[in-house]
Q: What sequence folds into this?
């Protein structure tokens, strides 16, 4: 009987490990949706401010076209449009050029974040990690949690699991809301499970249960999520 129970636990744990990548894909929609919404709101303000003060007028025009390519690419998954958002076209510059030409400005910083997301969407995680890491998260309190979480995902994809957990936990703390924070904490917990660190994963799952009671209302976005209690039970010794 004891052997049967232990074997079942081993199977359950291995299933959890194998589901780590599926988990990240499963939560891609709400996470990316939040990032895009924040970029549109905050980015639009930054560009309007630059335009209204007579500075970076060209950056405003160039960013608008790159954003258009980016949003269309996010909806369609077209890799060629992500490339155009990054590199521009025969008339307009892309995020890479804007980030370089206006590196000391808010517009340039925002272009750096866009570039990182484009690279991640293209599966170029080394480049994604570089640009997401270069984004100045102190520049904006709204976008920075989502940017940190996206960087954490890139680190995980590159095999830097400790760095990924650290970034995801930091992103959850900075976000401090019922939408992104629980997602980042559970992602970090899943990664810890894959490393065999069940006690540390348990702490994060219990934090989700105690601090984010309204998290259950987001189940509509999370296919297959059966409640935080299942995660807690899975890692209890």
A:
């Amino acid at each position: 009987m004891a052997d049967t129970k232990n074997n079942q636990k081993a199977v359950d744990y291995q299933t959890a490990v194998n589901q780590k990548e599926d988990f990240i894909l499963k939560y891609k929609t709400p996470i990316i949706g939040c990032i895009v919404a924040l970029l549109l709101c905050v980015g639009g303000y930054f560009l309007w401010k630059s335009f209204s003060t007579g500075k970076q007028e060209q950056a405003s025009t160039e960013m608008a076209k790159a954003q258009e390519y980016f949003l269309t690419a996010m909806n369609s998954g077209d890799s060629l449009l992500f490339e155009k958002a990054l590199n521009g076209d025969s008339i307009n510059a892309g995020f890479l050029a804007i980030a370089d030409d206006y590196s000391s400005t808010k517009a340039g910083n925002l272009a750096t974040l866009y570039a990182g997301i484009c690279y991640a969407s293209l599966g170029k995680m080394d480049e994604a990690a570089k640009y997401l890491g270069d984004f100045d998260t102190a520049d904006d309190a709204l976008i920075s949690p989502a940017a940190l979480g996206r960087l954490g995902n890139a680190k995980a994809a590159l095999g830097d699991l400790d760095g990924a957990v650290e970034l995801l936990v930091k992103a959850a703390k900075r976000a401090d809301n019922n939408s992104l924070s629980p997602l980042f904490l559970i992602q970090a917990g899943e990664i810890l499970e894959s490393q065999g660190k069940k006690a540390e994963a348990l702490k994060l799952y219990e934090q989700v249960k105690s601090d984010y009671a309204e998290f259950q209302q987001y189940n509509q976005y999370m296919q297959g999520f059966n409640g935080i209690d299942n995660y807690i039970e899975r890692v209890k010794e």
Q: What stands out?
A: The first helix runs from residue 2 to 18.
